[in-house]
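Hey L., structure's done. Input below.
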Amino acid sequence: MARSLEFDRTKALEAAMKLFWSRGYTATSLPDLLATMGIARSSFYASFGTKRSLFIECLELFGDRTLAIVDKNAKTQSAMALPRAFFETTVLGVSPRKAKQGCMMVNTILELADVDPELNELATQKLNAIEDVFVHAFKVARQSDQLGTAHTPEELASMVMTINLGLRVQSRKNHSREALKSIINTSLSMLDLAA
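Output:
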């Protein structure tokens, strides 16, 4: 008869995600993961398989949570206000420690783009899903004449995500909250999304 797992898998996964988010994939060792997750090596292998498979699960979790944030904002904000709401929630509305960690998906692309194409592709897919929410919101706004910009919905969404990438890198450089807020305001104004 198989023994039941002696740890809370959800809490262990959450702890691993936070460690990968702060250190990256390469710099996170298996002993560090075991200590952070509070599990034995045998439990790790039985529940998660490998470090890489755990990282994939953590990246999925992080991406899904971020997508849920933009989905929630899309239901309560106008398309014009959606980018600001997203940045206020994910960049300005988090602790300085979390802000300095950037975004796990962006970090993964920066770290692994030329090292692990599959992990790079997963992070890219997660970011693309977020961009798709912006595209949809901008298309709906364009159809109802609420979008007074010369850019297509796809161009606007792409630019919002480019701003997102830049903000995540800038936040890792220890920019102040005020500096990040200024970047957001200037960038959105340039796109006529300053609502």
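The domain at 56-190 is CATH 1.10.357 (Tetracycline Repressor; domain 2). The longest helix spans residues 117-143.

-- N.
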